[in-house]
Amino acid sequence: MDFLDDYKIALQNTAQLYSFINKRMDELFDYYSLSNFEVLEQDRLFFRSLSTFESITGLNFLLSKNEAYLNLLLSTAVRLNEPFIFEHFLNLLNLKGLEQSKIIRASALFMNCRNAIQLIDTYDTMLIFLEQAFLTETDFKKEPLVVLLNYFATAINHFGEFNERRLIEVRSLIIASFEEEQITFLKDSILEEVIDLDISFENQPHKALQLIIDSYLVKDPIPETFAPGFIIESGTAYADLIKANSYSMFEIWQLNRDFYNQIGETNPIFRSLGRGTAVLTTEDQLIVYMSQLGKMHFAKLKDAFKGLPNNLSDIHLFDWGCGQAPASKMFLDRFGVENISSVTLIEPSLAALKRASLHISSDTQNITTINKDFDSLIPDDFKGHTELTDITVHIFSNVIDMENFQLHKIIDLLRKKNNGITYYIIVSPYINSARVQRIETFVEEICEDTASELMFTDTKRSGTWNLSWSKVIRVFKTLS
């Protein structure tokens, strides 16, 4: 049976559901994070069914996986416009004293509205919560933006047929916020598409809006064809400069700071980075990203490397979602180029991947580049690495907690290629408890059925570590 069939059976009672969540949390993340509106609407597995509703309610939400599951349900209740179910699960969250993110607080404001006046009056407060969420809780502006779009979808549901005047009023609020350019997360072209939406009831605006949201929630645009073979930046002024010297990662960062100061107006470029999650395509994006967002990554990686033994050698390094390879470069600086046998760089952005291999080319010539997003990877991409008996190190820097790839697929791929002693380094910002659980699920699934050791763990929320930064670090070892 497939995932949905198994899930439907598990929802029949609490014990079965608990077991399912415990064993298949990676697939639950994928289902609720990546499914489009039509799929979710066809499979309202936890809505409008007393037996499944009771099964969910009976879970012990003090367990971290169950808490993450509850947060997935709350987000989906917003997407499907199920206010009473949302309210019930929110009450469970509050009853157990669990974390209530600003995203959830913003959603609660309009999900609990009973009339047009309430919906309109709550707009400003909701917008403040969403802006705070973007600035302090998430590195991915899609989350607060999608909540705002679901607010608009709620208005369409309530007023689209019989009270278009109120619907126009709601849309005017969104237009005004967008045009004022005071709210950071609103600086996105999707709002232009939403503002231009025909809200006449006969044109099914709710369905049209959900299609827009579905399209927006798809990963950042990835080329249909990837560049094969070895990729490196050459023939540019930047490449000539890097090749002429042997730079440390700190010196590369300083160079990018100098280039950044020469760019001029950088706000549009900075916004295009998506808080460090976008697929980069231009020279200016590469420079701005490295100069402005790099320092926080360096601090987390430096802490994470403390969890590894100091005497590692014959290392085959894999850098997943490598960007411009700051993690690989820092690793080479820290453990010595003489101890690195090979480096494999995996990155969907062609521009970033070219620069990544350039950055480490003075340290090692044994570089493999894989220009793909995670969902496009197959075992054949790693031919020549699957039989390695030396030490393997996988670095996932600001990757595993992101919800734009199939978690269970990458876990299966890594399980197949695990051989000998393997170290995993995971660093991410602290977003919320559900995103931390995504990381914990990854660690647990990789370690299943193999000898493993958790070597270092550290979690700091925003404001409790190094200025206003946050971090989640997991370092562990497997032996198979």
Topology:
Elements: H1 3-10, H2 14-34, H3 37-42, H4 50-57, H5 64-79, H6 83-95, H7 102-111, H8 116-121, H9 123-136, H10 142-159, H11 164-180, H12 190-195, H13 205-217, H14 237-243, H15 249-263, H16 267-272, H17 283-305, E1 315-320, H18 326-335, E2 340-346, H19 350-360, E3 367-370, E4 391-397, H20 407-417, E5 421-428, H21 433-447, E6 451-465, E7 469-479
Parallel strand pairs: 1-2, 1-4, 2-3, 4-5
Antiparallel strand pairs: 5-7, 6-7
End-to-end gap: 29 Å
> Which segments are poorly predicted (pLDDT under 50) over 5 or more consecutive residues?
265-277
* Fraction in helix: 40-55%
Radius of gyration: 23 Å
The average pLDDT is 86
What fraction of the residues are assigned to beta strands by DSSP? 5-15%
Can you count the beta strands? Answer: 7
Structural class: alpha/beta
The tally of helices reads: 21
Overall, the morphology is globular
Question: Can I get a quick summary?
Answer:
This protein is α/β, with parallel strands linked by helices and 480 residues long. 53% of the residues lie in helices and 12% in strands.
Summary keywords:
alpha/beta, seven-stranded mixed beta sheet
Question: What do you see in this structure?
Answer:
This protein has 480 residues and is of the alpha/beta class. It has 21 helices and seven strands. The protein has helices at residues 3-10, 14-34, 37-42, 50-57, 64-79, 83-95, 102-111, 116-121, 123-136, 142-159, 164-180, 190-195, 205-217, 237-243, 249-263, 267-272, 283-305, 326-335, 350-360, 407-417, 433-447; strands at 315-320, 340-346, 367-370, 391-397, 421-428, 451-465, 469-479. Strands 3-2-1-4-5-7-6 form a seven-stranded mixed beta sheet, with helices on both faces. Helix 5 packs across helix 21. The longest helix is centred in the middle third of the chain and has 23 residues, at 283-305. The radius of gyration is 23 Å and the shape is globular.
